[in-house]
Design goal:
By secondary structure, the protein is α+β, with helices and mostly antiparallel strands. Helices cover 54% and strands 18% of the residues.
Length: 402
């Protein structure tokens, strides 16, 4: 039998039993679709988290009060014990590091904002004028907080877009006096729309000078200090300089935690990458189950087509020809299932993107190739046993069963 004869024989055998063929293709396609959809979900979550942290800014070192780790970054770093709190003076001292370009202290709390009989609860962030550049925010109207001494409690406020729309509606906001907590503040700017990030919607924030916020919340402590290094290569040396400054200010004890942006990104990238591989492995199990189904159905096919196999052998077909014919049929069925599963998987990923627009649920290329390759390999491997059984049939005995 020529290769064309083998392919024609396998194609006719598959099309001669449409229900059996459809079930085998369906089983294989479900496995491939599961790999594509689950890896799209896992990799989409990984890219979403990495993008969210990247949106914080670039070349950042975050200083947290308290010390919980001796190195690297772990999820435990996000919760720290606080023997001594961070202060504005700590923040000012960090600017002395030669490799630091900008710094923004953060003091966070909730308060009410009111104007013209309209009132709503809002998260208030006390910071400095450099915060807008560190976070790469854009202004929709007016200007951001003035770059002034951090101890000066200027009575000004900058609003997020949603706060501005809900409080002022179609009225102009710049220059208006709003009440935030027990303070009367002049609105000097409105941030451009930025949306949700790390569970915080910037459009719903009210920004005040850090001293104003601390006076409002009756505290001298800071929530975090964000420091920007001169370059990506300077992040490590800058972190060491910041640690040295904090040790000098704390009598030789380093009771703060410094987290670099790269450490945060690397940790989440590794965790969610491993999670994606795990879900891909679980989905690949369904391909093994589909392969077992292919083997069972092919064994039944050998029994049903015993007389046909005997006739082929009587006409001169060798055992190798019969074996190749059955393996080709298994490969064709697996290929059809893989292509169908690929299409179904992309359809499912499209549905995920429709349901969760913020999630970039695109299947990674490696997962697509791995799913299709595993489907083909599994189908062919589980087709070996039926093919060998068919090739070993004696032509006389096979024809006698007719």
């Amino acid at each position: 039998m020529t290769p064309a004869d083998t392919l024609r024989f396998a194609t006719r055998a598959a099309s001669g039993y449409p229900l059996r063929t459809a079930l085998m293709v369906l089983a294989m396609s479900i496995g491939v679709a599961a790999v594509v959809v689950l890896t799209a979900l896992g990799d989409g979550a990984r890219r979403y988290v990495v993008n969210e942290f990247s949106a914080l800014g670039s070349n950042l070192v975050i200083v947290l009060p308290g010390r919980t780790a001796t190195g690297g970054f772990g999820l435990g770093n996000l919760v720290t014990s606080t023997p001594r709190d961070l202060t504005v003076r700590d923040a000012q001292a960090l600017l002395r590091a030669p490799l630091v370009t900008r710094m923004a202290p953060l003091s966070v709390g909730n308060s009410e904002i009111a104007w013209g009989g309209r009132l709503r609860e809002a998260m208030v962030v006390g910071t400095s004028g450099d915060y807008v550049d560190i976070r790469a925010f854009r202004m929709a109207e007016g200007s951001f907080l003035p770059r002034e001494d951090l101890g000066r409690a200027t009575a000004v406020a900058v609003l997020g877009t949603k706060i501005r729309d809900e409080i002022f509606g179609s009225e102009p906001a710049i220059g208006r006096i709003v009440r935030v907590g027990d303070r009367r503040l002049r609105v000097i700017g409105v941030l451009a729309k930025t949306g949700q990030g790390l569970g915080m919607n910037t459009d719903e924030l009210v920004f005040l000078p850090v001293a104003t916020a601390q006076a409002m919340f009756n505290t001298n402590n800071l929530f975090r200090i964000i420091v920007e290094a001169r370059s990506r290569e300077a992040i490590g040396p800058a972190k060491q300089q910041l640690e040295q400054i904090m040790r000098l200010r704390r009598d030789g004890e380093l009771d703060v935690t410094l987290i670099t942006q790269d450490a945060v990104l690397g940790t989440f990238d590794r965790i969610l990458g491993a999670l994606t591989l795990a879900v891909a492995g679980i989905a690949a199990i369904s391909l093994a189950v589909a392969g077992i189904l292919v083997m069972n159905v092919m064994l039944v096919a050998v029994t049903q087509r015993t007389a046909e196999i005997g006739l082929l052998k009587a006409l001169g077909a060798t055992g190798r020809n019969i074996r190749l014919a059955f393996l080709t049929e298994a490969a064709l069925l697996s290929l059809a299932g893989a292509i169908t599963g690929f299409a179904l998987g992309h359809l499912g990923a499209w549905g995920l993107r429709l349901a969760f627009p913020v999630l970039p649920a695109w299947p990674p290329d490696w997962a697509v190739f791995a799913g299709i390759g595993t489907a083909l390999t599994t189908g062919i491997l589980f087709g070996v046993m039926p093919a060998r059984r068919a090739s070993r049939l004696d032509p006389v005995q096979a024809l006698s069963r007719r």
